[in-house]
Amino acid sequence: MPRLCLFVLLFFFLACPLAAEEAKPPVSEPVYPGLAEIVPRASMVTEDAGRAAAKIAEVADTSSFDAQLKDARQRQDELFQRIAALGPLEGWNVDRLLEFRGLVTEQRLAIKKLLDVVSARISEVDGIRREWNRKWDFWTGWEESLQGQQLKIPKESFREARREIDGILKKTAILAAPLVALQKEVTSLQEKNLDLLERIDGNLKILRQEIFKKTAPSFGNPEYYRQYGEDLWKAVKNGVAEVQHVRPDFLSSQGWVAILQGVVALALVGFILVKRRQAAESKEWEFITLHPWATGVFVAVSAFSAFYTNPPTLWRLLLWIFAALSAAVLISGLLKNPRKILMVRLLAFLFVLSLALKIVALPQPLYRLYLVLLCLAGIPLLLVMAKRNLAAHKGKSDGFTLALRCGAMILGGSLLAQFGGYSNLAARIFESSINSVFLGLFAAMAIRLGRGGIDYLISLALLRGRRFFRRHGSEFADRLKGAFQVFVIAYALLYLLEVWGIYDTVGQAWTDLLDLGFTLGGTFVSVQMVLMAGLVFYLSVVFSWLLSAFLDTNIFPAKGYDRGVRDAIKKLLHYALLLLGFLLAMSLAGVELKTFAFLAGALGIGIGFGLQDVVNNFVSGIILLFERPIKVGDLVVLDTEWGTVRKIGLRSTVIETLDQSEIIVPNSMLISEKVTNWTLSTKMARVVIPVGVAYGSDVTLVLGILSEVGNAHPDATQDPPPSPIFTRFGESSLDFELRVWIADISSRLRVTSELNQEIDRRFREAGVEIPFPQRDLHLRSVDPAVLVRSSPSPLEGGVEETSE
């Protein structure tokens, strides 16, 4: 019984949780110095106070802020005045809203920068205040500690220290008030700016949502004609006046871009004029030599216009005019069909005209009237041109005819939308179609000029003089041209989203595209991660090629490695870099490297079920690279098929036969089966020429002729020397062989043919006969009728007949 009670008691204590309070961390009491430190530390407080006062005076100087705040307030007031002069935001078109949103955003960034500087100064003052509050607490506690020890202390030193500390604290309190007031004023400007930005974004959103809505009275509605009044013409004047407005600081802050464009354009013009005669030899670049000014302007505007930040509308219009006209001139130089040339020039004119009307924000009634007149004139023109082009091609429709008909259909759709009152839809169809066509032309011209520029750079004597560019220049240029073409096409596709109003800017489209993604196994995989992974893997491939090319041109020739060793090193480096790039790409894509352990397990299962041949070929490929029983360039015989090894991969090997066909051989066959390699250790080979002479021929003469023929051939080696051999007595001839060693197996067939020809010639000169094969036929019984037809004499005994 006592044992049972003890067991129950023990079980109770073990089962009940022990509520043990967590021990509070001991509060460490500050340790104060002794009497000997009072005077030195007091003097240090005085020195620190002097430095703090100087810092406070520096922070208190807000003259620069006042000027910046005044400038920001003035800019914002001017911006609001310009907006008020142009009427309510609800009546603006998309281009004007986007233009002013850029200006408002630029102003917001300037205000934010000013606010950040003011906030940083307030934080700096607050840091000084906290530091000197700690000093106050320290000196107060130090004095109380010494008084508690009943020691005689120098009170004057403590009073002096507290006086210095109190002075600094008062200065920080005084300084904080104007800085906070300045911060509030800047914040007020920022709030007004954000409010205007939200209104602009709201109107942009409404315009996008109203694309497929009826937003204006139809042409049959009298309400449309009532819009033509004084307010309409006033709006036109305001729009023209707004276009002429150029910010005073634009040229001072961004004029360097215009200067750079002018310098580049003039430099290209001079370069083309100097190289005109050389480039004129190629018809591909004739359009550039004929239009140097258009080329220089197009390249300068296209390449450097992106450096502008919110350029004025007039400047933006001028840039587009230069770009469109120069592109039209260059494209016309590439075309031979006069109807295509006319269409390109008309498109350029309409593009510039429509852009100018949009920039001046032509009121909606007038812009609708412009589109209707344009559609009424354009539809019959396009149909007539399509009909003439079809007749010129004898009734066969081509791409240009189809494009003309599609253009007529687009104008017809825009016309119907305008008559129905769907003003936004009609304008979007017309404007986006023209802009899309010109975007395609710009992209095509940029790609053509870029490819030509790359070819010219690679062909420079400075680069061609280097071994790398002599050997790999063409491939390197192809890779650069491919990358440039991908960049231009990707940018054009993103810009196409802006053209059709899906996004406001290319940057916004790019940002939203990168944010797209999906969830895979609890991990969010974005487009940005996938693109980064693809870019890293592609760069690893390019770097692998560059490294292999560099080794081929600079390292291997100096070291004297044979081709097999070079190929083995290059392939191992290639696959190692690809593996490294793949792992890094997967890491950037959000795939943890530890998950590859599961992939390895899955791979093991796959090998066990159905990947034995793949793995066998892979391992055999590694053996071929290291052991090198065959090398690239070796002459081999596989299943009675002669061929040259052209490529050794990790899975298969490519063998080119003598008739130029290619055999793909799994690597496991080259390891497990019999392969004859004629050039494994040496290219020397023996040519054996069998020859038979008639019975009764002079054997010594035959051997002498064969020896002379072998020694006389230039490709026959003398070590070992040619050897004629009497091999046997044949059925109808004395059989000989001429065995000749040659230095290169690749000339085996040619040497065999030449030796046979020479032996035949010498035998004819010496009278040595090469017999036909002979056979004896013994006839035991013959039909008498056959005997009568074949011969008049009776057949006695056997008949001997010689046949070939």
TrEMBL record:
Sequence ranges assigned to domain Mechanosensitive ion channel MscS C-terminal in this UniProt record: 687-770
Domain Mechanosensitive ion channel MscS as annotated: residue spans: 613-679
Chief site of localization: membrane
Recorded GO CC terms: plasma membrane
Signal peptide residue numbers: 1-20
Molecular functions (GO terms): mechanosensitive monoatomic ion channel activity
Listed transmembrane segments: 255-274, 286-308, 314-335, 342-361, 367-386, 398-417, 437-463, 484-503, 523-551, 572-591
Keywords of this entry: Cell membrane, Membrane, Signal, Transmembrane, Transmembrane helix
Gene3D superfamilies noted in UniProt: 1.10.287.1260, 2.30.30.60, 3.30.70.100
Matching Pfam families: MS_channel_2nd, MS_channel_3rd
Cellular compartment(s): Cell membrane
InterPro entries: LSM_dom_sf, MS_channel_C, MscS-like_channel, MscS_beta-dom_sf, MscS_channel_2nd, MscS_channel_C_sf, MscS_channel_CS, MscS_channel_TM-2
Membrane topology: Multi-pass membrane protein
Family designation: Belongs to the MscS (TC 1.A.23) family.
Identification of the protein by name: Mechanosensitive ion channel
Organism: Desulfuromonas soudanensis
Lineage: Bacteria, Pseudomonadati, Thermodesulfobacteriota, Desulfuromonadia, Desulfuromonadales
